[in-house]
């Protein structure tokens, strides 16, 4: 969930060379070409162009404005009973959630036979850019409050008690007592508006697209991982059905991403962040005025390698798109229910971080 250092890493010359001996660029030569990343205005223009040629199938709704007045837009498409929410760029310096969700949306609109079937089974709410101000400033946080929008949904007394019960089971000290008027957060307008959109849509499933740093696969390989899947809550916070479903989603995504040939999907480390957007959505967290949607989504997230460059961008986007289709196809044809959830825990762990200083130690100060 953190892009530790977007500039640390360089594009690989050949995506297949995914090991630490690969062509890393020495310190001082890492450049990020922002012109290769779609701006909020470009993403919006593409969404509207798609809507215009979709013959009414795709509807773009502006649900409000960001803290700096940029449109917050959701693409709605599909007529199925199962509702899926996909969001990207909640962290402004983690760009490719927008490119990946837009690519996914394009395929939905272009309407092959298989896609038509998917749209009969599933209704989508797709948010390529949750935090447009953050993206324009290329910062993780929003622009007005400088807070992490993925820690700004609501937590109530019941969820708080659950957190402390999980902490106790892990031998961790309880969190200090809270004033729950304050712990129902929604400081940013983005959080408020997206909560109401979520409460209105009531998605069964959510997928949240992020970037992380660059890491090894496991602790004893020389391989680099470009893609991790993760769940933002301790299993003790979830119902058994939720825990099974979100792990099945992770397995379906990993299988599909691994098929792109250059990717070895790893498991994102343990976290438990109930005030995160997709977490609060799983917990029926309270809304901005303390109201309830009485809804629990099933949600997980993708993390792409942070190193972004002209040559690596294509496959970093593609692994996300493949992962999305892996989940969606399995949902559409009903096979998701047959995925072995326990395979999730067998995915290789995300290993130690890889930096250019590891590769070029004589060029680093420490
Ligand atoms: Zn993130």
Automatic annotation (TrEMBL):
Record InterPro entries: Peptidase_M14 (IPR000834)
GO molecular function term, any single one: metallocarboxypeptidase activity
Keywords: Hydrolase, Metalloprotease, Protease, Signal, Zinc
SUPFAM superfamilies: Zn-dependent exopeptidases
Pfam family, one: Peptidase_M14
Domain (Peptidase M14): residue spans on this chain: 36-366
Keyword Transferase attributed: no
Gene3D superfamilies, per database record: Zn peptidases
Signal peptide positions (record): 1-20
Cofactor section: Zn(2+)
PROSITE patterns the UniProt entry points to: PEPTIDASE_M14
Gene Ontology CC annotation, any one: extracellular space
GO biological process terms, semicolon-separated: proteolysis
Family: Belongs to the peptidase M14 family.
Protein's recorded name: Peptidase M14 domain-containing protein
Organism expressing this protein natively: Micromonospora maris
């Amino acid at each position: 969930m953190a892009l530790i250092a977007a500039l640390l890493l360089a594009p690989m010359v050949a995506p297949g060379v995914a090991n630490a001996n690969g062509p890393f660029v020495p310190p001082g030569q890492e450049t990020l070409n922002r012109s290769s990343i779609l701006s909020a205005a470009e993403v919006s223009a593409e969404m509207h162009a798609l809507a215009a040629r979709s013959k009414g199938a795709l509807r773009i709704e502006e649900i409000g404005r960001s803290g700096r007045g940029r449109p917050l837009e959701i693409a709605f498409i599909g007529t199925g009973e199962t509702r899926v929410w996909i969001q990207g760029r909640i962290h402004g310096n983690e760009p490719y959630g927008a490119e990946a969700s837009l690519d996914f949306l394009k395929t939905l609109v272009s309407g092959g036979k298989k896609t038509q079937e998917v749209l009969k089974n599933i209704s989508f709410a797709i948010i390529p850019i949750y935090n447009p101000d953050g993206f324009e400033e290329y910062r993780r946080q929003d622009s007005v409050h400088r807070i992490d929008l993925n820690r700004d949904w609501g937590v109530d007394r019941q969820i708080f008690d659950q957190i402390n019960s999980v902490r106790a089971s892990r031998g961790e000290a309880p969190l200090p007592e809270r004033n729950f008027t304050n712990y129902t957060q929604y400081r940013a307008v983005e959080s408020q508006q997206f909560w109401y959109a979520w409460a209105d849509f009531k998605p069964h499933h959510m997928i949240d697209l992020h970037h992380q740093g660059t890491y090894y696969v496991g602790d004893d390989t020389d391989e680099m991982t470009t893609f991790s899947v993760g769940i933002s809550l301790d299993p003790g916070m979830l119902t058994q059905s939720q825990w099974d479903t979100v792990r099945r989603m992770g397995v379906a995504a990993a299988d599909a991403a691994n098929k792109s040939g250059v990717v070895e999907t790893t498991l994102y480390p343990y976290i438990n962040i109930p005030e995160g957007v997709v977490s609060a959505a799983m917990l029926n967290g309270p809304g901005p005025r303390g109201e309830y949607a009485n809804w629990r989504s099933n949600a997980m997230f993708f993390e792409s390698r942070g190193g972004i460059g002209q040559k690596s961008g294509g496959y970093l986007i593609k692994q996300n798109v493949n992962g999305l289709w892996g989940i969606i196809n399995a949902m559409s044809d009903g096979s998701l229910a047959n995925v072995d959830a326990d395979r999730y825990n067998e995915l290789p762990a995300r290993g130690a971080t890889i930096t250019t200083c590891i590769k070029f130690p004589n060029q680093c100060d420490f």
